[in-house]
Amino acid sequence: MPELPEVQALAERLDALLAGSALSAIEPLGFSGLKTHDPPPESLVGLRLERVGRRGKYLVLDLGGPRMLIHLSQGGRLVVEDPPKATRPKGAVVRLLFEARPSVMVKEFGTERRAGWWVLAPGDDGPLERLGPELGDDSFAELILRGDDTRRIHTILRDQRTVAGIGRGYSDDILHRARLSPYSTLPSLDPPTRRSLFDAVRSVLDQALEVERRRAGGLPTKLGDHFTVHNRYGKPCPRCGEDLRRVSYESHEVTYCPRCQTGGKVLADRRLSRLVR
Ligand SMILES: [Zn+2]
Fold this sequence. Notes:
The chain has about 280 residues and is α+β, with helices and mostly antiparallel strands. It contains seven helices and ten strands. β2 and β3 form a beta hairpin. α1 packs parallel to α5 (about 190-210), α2 crosses α5 and α4 (about 170-175) crosses α5. The protein binds zinc ion. Zinc ion (ZN) binds near residues 239, 240, 242, 257 and 259.
């Protein structure tokens, strides 16, 4: 799934490519992609795109009052079409056409069909209303350095209401960078460890953003080839060489290094033990 670095760098590329031009047409191509019914998408046609930004994992297209949001979810991608196209490929969600600029198409490459778009009236935050702070906000620093949220840190980082923009991929890498167990919680950490976790969050995402900024155009189907540990179980830990392991919980898998993160302990796979029982 595209997370903060992918979406942020994509927003920057789209802003450079499209800002200042008028939206000339919106072609809804898929059937469940549009998540709002009022205002209608046609009401945006003719408006000038002021800027493209990001909030959490949402692309925010600011049309000088009204806004359009795009969320790529798991398998959604954005394709830049230069020259603009009129095709209707499988998985297509929506195409936006701009005066004298390339077109962009949101397309679903996954099987879950969850990529969506929203048309918001001026002042309406829509789904952005439910998002927690951004990484740079003081309240996020406060949470990590002094907060007493007792959920697992991995869960906290992935919860968009707690902090916006991080998903499973970078959560795995952050815990590895901070040498913390996938099961660790904030109240169990001493102040220096909290500080190093906070630094790990920032450095993992800053580095990923740097890599993402080297891309051109839209977002390719395959993402995340620059993860340090996420989805790399069975491969050697880049820090110590031990085989990376995976453990499943909350319907997904976490990759970790036993030597770096759990004092050598291999975590019991609860899904597996449930089967055994
Ligand atoms: Zn290691």
